[in-house]
Design a protein that fits this description.
Blueprint lengths: L1 E5 L6 H15 L3 E6 L13 E5 L14 H15 L3 E5 L1 H14 L7 E6 L2 H4 L8 H10 L2 E4 L2 H11 L6 E2 L13 H8 L6 E7 L7 H9 L7 E7 L7 H6 L6 E5 L4 H7 L2 E4 L8 H7 L5 E4 L4 H4 L6 E4 L4 H13 L1 H18 L2 H19 L1
Parallel strand pairs: 1-2, 1-4, 2-3, 4-5, 5-6, 6-7, 8-9, 8-11, 9-10, 11-12, 12-13
Helix pairs in contact: 2-3, 3-5, 7-10, 8-13
The protein binds ligand GMT.
Ligand GMT binds next to α1.
Amino acid sequence: MKIGIACYPSVGGSGILATALGEELVRRGHEVHFFSYERPFRLPADVPRLHFHPVVINEYQLFKYPDYTLPLSVRMAEVSRDHRLDVLHVHYAVPHATAAILAQSMLPPEQQPSVVTTLHGTDTTLLGSDPGYGPAIHHALTCSDAVTVVSEFLKQETQRVLGFHGPLEVIHNFFVPRPPRRSREEVRRELGIADNEAMILHSSNVRPVKRIDLLLESVARIRPRDAFKLVVLAGGDFAPYAGDVQRLGLADRISVREKVNEIEDYLQAADLGLFTSETESFCLSILEAMFFGCPSVARRAGGIPEVVEDGVSGLLVPSADPDALARAIESLIREPKRRLAMGEAARRRAREHFSADAIVPRYEALYQRVCSRTS
Ligand code: GMT
């Protein structure tokens, strides 16, 4: 099939998932066309049947704010027509779903691709309740040929927040780990982590929803304080948290790496993950760690319980309580055998339920279904 994918190019779960899906579809023989204002940062170059179409945004003095939706829809319409795309699969509703619907309606019926929209999280939980966005998102979902969500939790939130009661198919996130480029020892040496220190890993775009303040408060309460080092892979600017790091006396306990591409190097070196998000529709970062046998301590938030079985493949803490989070981490630092067993359970669960082989055929089947329906 010929599939167009629109996504955000920067570090963020929806763009990462969309990129991985595109790569997997190409590996399975499909032709894939990506649309974004920049090349998605994990998108490999020079892969046959994998194309990238940059969307050019011109600045006009008349506009106070540059518009992205219209140039995106025009680009999607042009490429759909020129390459005879079967499907436009858009990741994150705003503005991609609206642009796809517009692109579809710009074309004559015989050239119209089907539109599949995947909701990832804040497009429902944050923008869905904004009166300036909610009705437009609802409209785009209603006009889509199919809508998917990345967890049961997000399905319920989409029904509750947006009042959308059309079909919603739950297709969880997946991950395809690449082989690490450096050894575990090399990476730990680079990070200054001694053999008797547990490496706690947090990776995210460090937006407010990730509650980095709570993350730092929690690790500051871990005892003994020389039992760990926290490594933050920040997909955004970590500078605003420098004051917290100083205030909490964490300067010698924390290493931050910004915009890392070789995440596998760090995932294999980690002993534990720590995630304190206010909400997560799934939490791709927890899954990435699971593939490397690294169990996580996380808040029981949003769709995280669909990823981690509490007490089996990780530990879930019911509230935003830094003491409870610190105690959970301490228990796994103190009991390496239990931690390793949890890591193994996490790895098994990840491979069984959230591998490309488990998930990608679900998208392929959906594309087949919508195309046969529309044709
Ligand atoms: O916060 C991010 O990392 C980006 C965010 C988004 O809305 O694009 O990620 C969401 O999509 C990921 C992939 O489906 C999910 O694993 C994340 O849980 C989800 N983030 C939130 O719900 C806050």
